[in-house]
Write the structure tokens for this entry.
Amino acid sequence: MSSADTATDTAAGEEAPERDERREELLAILASELGDAVVGSHISPGQTLWVRVDRDAWRHTAEVAKNRLRLDFFDFLSAIDWLPSPFGRDMDSQEDLAIHGAEPKEPSPMTTGCAGGDTRFQLLAHLYSTRSHLGVVFKADLPDDDLRVASWVPVYHGADWHERETWEMFGIEFTGHPNLAHIYLPSGFEGHPLRKDFPLLARRVKPWPGIVDVEPMPGGAGDEEEEGG
């Protein structure tokens, strides 16, 4: 595009997209090192870079992040289950039920956030540089029928506890992890409590304490009816 065309666009009121050259440089290094294994990315200028990589490149991504990007601080690792809740209103909080009623509701469509996604389960981790003060959120899609991925513990020792929790709560297996042992649940526990299809039976048996007697917020539908009456 010529400079004249650019001037015309600007005159027409179209703002040029905000640039973040430092995060663009990080993304360029990742693309150079990982090639087609980078399947999605998103830059929020001045805030964060999200990069989605192929599951088979998960361990190599950690190595590149540490050695090439100099991301020396491991922040966290976990997972997301993007499945909308299949339980309807009966699993909502007492406050939701009091205000909106207990009628069945249609599940929301599945969305996967920044950098996209193609599967229900997604792994994510945040790394940070204590030198450049830049961070990167890495994501990887995991197929429902094969929730396995290489462990980051050989690269970032701090991932040990995080991978154990993710294995326990989501059922994701980290191959090469030195000790996938339970943290919160007894060894014979069945199911993975942070999956969206895991029923929180306590909500059905007994209302949660502290939010049993809930009144609508001021300015709600109830107030309007009283004023109109």
User: Anything to note?
Assistant: Confidence is low (pLDDT under 50) at residues 1-10, 224-229.
